[in-house]
């Protein structure tokens, strides 16, 4: 049986609700339960189950790894929010705001360990390969986060550096999810590698779409106000390309807003967005999203399973490209 993304999401949500976190002290585990209750796309476990389902129907065999990958993803969000001093996540207070910094650090650490405990629950034949992929992915995410923090202090970040940062910070977890699913299903090595590369491409497109939505998304759909990246001078694809392609007058204006300490937030958002529109970086981002989506499609074409089995992944990929949230 080939499952669609909604079916897999429903099954995964049932597994997540049944996850036993009734350990003590509850002051450690309550924030973990809170983070997991905030929802989200559950994209990574769904991708893992989709990859598994390309080759096998008994998706229950990938249950623990799907739970582990989502636990790890939410740990990264918890610590990202702390490092960014973010007040809200998915419309609710972040852990360090609802509790405190120390709780966020320790509960995040516990989530990492819980993720590894879930991930290791597979047969001995698959265990070394699965854990090797997962550990390498976890380390690369840390590398990507460090690059992101380093970029905050630089005005000369290049497009290639940014793409490498989002490959590490965002794409490798999608790619690793897909590859682990394939490995658990005994997929041929070539197919597992193709799915990994497919995940890298959709991850890059996914983050570029996030950059666009932060500036151009409908706030009612996106769930937050536009321009958060602009207000904190975040080195997104849009800002990096704007600084690279701007003429002297445009660059001076961008730098003036970046360096300004006191301003009316909406005025800054409007001014920088206008510069983005004039320079055309939004169109460049859209073209790059199309390019990575085309590359992902070509990689999926080469996976050696029947075409009808790939339709769920194709539909999901199209949805990610067209999403407004």
The fold-level CATH name is: Farnesyl Diphosphate Synthase
SSE string: HHHHEEHHHHHHHHHHHH
As a percent range, the share of helical residues equals over 70%
Report mean pLDDT, rounded to a whole number.
95
The Cα radius of gyration reads 20 Å
Short summary:
With 325 residues, the chain is mainly alpha-helical.
Describe it.
This protein is an all-alpha fold and 325 residues long. The protein has one domain (5-322): Orthogonal Bundle (Farnesyl Diphosphate Synthase), CATH 1.10.600. Helix content is 74%, strand content 1%. The chain has a two-stranded antiparallel sheet. Strand 1 (88-89) and strand 2 (92-93) form a beta hairpin. The chain is globular, with a radius of gyration of 20 Å. It starts with a helix and ends with a helix. The model has no long low-confidence stretch (mean pLDDT 95).
Topology:
Blueprint: H1 5-17, H2 26-37, H3 43-53, H4 63-84, E1 88-89, E2 92-93, H5 95-98, H6 101-119, H7 127-151, H8 159-184, H9 189-216, H10 219-222, H11 228-231, H12 237-245, H13 248-259, H14 265-279, H15 281-302, H16 307-322
Main attributes of the structure:
single chain, 325 residues, mainly alpha, Farnesyl Diphosphate Synthase, 16 helices, 74% helix
